[in-house]
Write a structure and sequence with these properties.
43% of the residues lie in helices and 13% in strands. It is an alpha/beta fold. It folds into two domains: 137 residues, Rossmann fold; 57 residues, Orthogonal Bundle (DNA polymerase, domain 1), CATH 1.10.150.450. Helix 1 packs across helix 2 and helix 2 packs across helix 3. The chain is globular and about 55 Å long.
Length: 216
Amino acid sequence: MSSAWIFDLDNTLHNATVHVFPRINRAMIEYVQTHLNLDEEAANALRYSYWQRYGATILGLMRHHDIDPAHFLWQTHQFPDLHRVLVAEPMLRATLNRLPGRKFVFSNAPVHYAQAVLRALGIFDLFADVYTIEHTHYRPKPDTFGFLRLCRNHHLRPRRCIMVEDNLDNLRTAKRLGMKTVWVTGAAVLRSRAPGYVDKTVRSVAQLPRLFRPLP
């Protein structure tokens, strides 16, 4: 049985830090301002506090303000100029094609945004499924719920899965479930400085093909 590759989306398959994340953060602040009648400073503080406490702003808004998660995610992930603001990894499609086994995207982003990004990157057809926060019933990573649901729905054995992520908390959950883990750092990191639950570190997914043999 070949390995299954499970990829995060933002800051793993593309660089979201430059344009995408600032736009999403701005949209979230404006949403909180409008729907909770707060000024900009208070809205930003609340958004950030919920992100720190729950791992996702949406969870705090759902639990404390009865915000409709679908409406929030739709409004805060609008990118009519997506092709212009995406910062893609070079040779991304060729890199993914060199990795044997099924491939999945597992993201805390909403489905409409994740699919749009993958299409804009020209790699949507390479994935067996795109698993998003809606599929996890709004229980985002690092909660184990989404990991287990993805594996169960696609008959994946965690020990045959390779999780590729930029977020260490999510990799910790993956490792706890028995997955191999690859940390996309965006910078050179000595293996001795990576947490014990990280099997490999890469600066970008372009380095993955040379790591495949040692992983399974």
